[in-house]
Amino acid sequence: MKTLPLRLMPGQDLRATLAGVLAGHGASAGFVLQGIGSLRGARLRLAGAPDATELEGDIEILTLAGSLSPDGPHLHMALADANGRVLGGHVLAGCTIRTTAEILIALLPDHRFARGPDAASGFDELVVHSHDC
Fold this sequence. Notes:
The chain has helices at 14-19, 21-24; strands spanning 2-8, 30-45, 53-69, 72-81, 86-91, 97-107, 111-117, 124-130. The protein is mainly β. It has one domain (2-113, 126-130): CATH 3.30.1330.80. Strands 1, 2, 3, 4, 5 and 6 form a 6-stranded antiparallel beta sheet that branches. Strands 7-8 form a two-stranded antiparallel sheet. Strand 2 (30-45) and strand 3 form a beta hairpin. The longest helix is centred in the N-terminal third of the chain and has 6 residues, at 14-19. The chain is globular. Pfam families: PCC (PF03479).
């Protein structure tokens, strides 16, 4: 495992930036171990909800975690608004960095991640391949 600390800058889209991390480092598997920072708007898909929930204003990232594959990231995040209300869910495009995001990624050089259909969940789920297989 190789760790990769990142700092995202104001105006960057959180999901889009993390989607490009693997290719930028020649990797095909990774995990976001943790992330903190601030957003100036966010889009989450809440548990079981078909549509996005949009948040506006100053928002703090309390936690960020997920998997990174060449097929795209699968990220979950807990957020707090300016009144301290907390909401969490699946990260969608449209989470724009306000001041910073400090993120620690683990690159897994011995693995390749993919996303494939899962009959039990009905979603594309993580498929783990070992490079020595």
